[in-house]
Design the sequence.
């Protein structure tokens, strides 16, 4: 299933999650992961068709407290990106540790 993120990083930020409880990505079954990836593709297509300003996406998962996971149910972030939405987007998801973002 998919829901809007309650604290979106950008407009259109969506969470994809399995219905069955799984604590994180590593607890999801192969079938759940496959279904999640298919749903992500569908959502990406819908977002791109409905919002021409979207020029890219971040897809991410936090697994464990030390990785920033605060909701202990598996979920995948699909974050639409737009040109100019960040001053220095190079490094993308590496920004979880700011000193490692620029390389």
Sequence:
């Amino acid at each position: 299933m998919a829901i809007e993120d309650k604290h979106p990083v950008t407009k259109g930020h969506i969470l994809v999650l399995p219905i069955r409880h799984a604590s994180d990505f590593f607890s999801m079954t192969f079938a759940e992961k496959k279904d999640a990836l298919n749903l992500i593709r569908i959502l990406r297509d819908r977002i791109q068709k409905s919002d021409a300003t979207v020029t890219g996406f971040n897809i991410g998962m936090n697994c464990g407290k030390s990785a920033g996971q605060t909701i202990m149910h598996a979920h995948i972030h699909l974050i639409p990106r737009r040109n100019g939405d960040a001053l220095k987007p190079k490094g993308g998801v590496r920004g979880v540790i700011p000193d490692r973002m620029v390389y």
User: Anything to note?
Assistant: The mean pLDDT is 94. The chain has one domain: 2-89. Residues 95 and 101 are 5 Å apart (CA to CA).
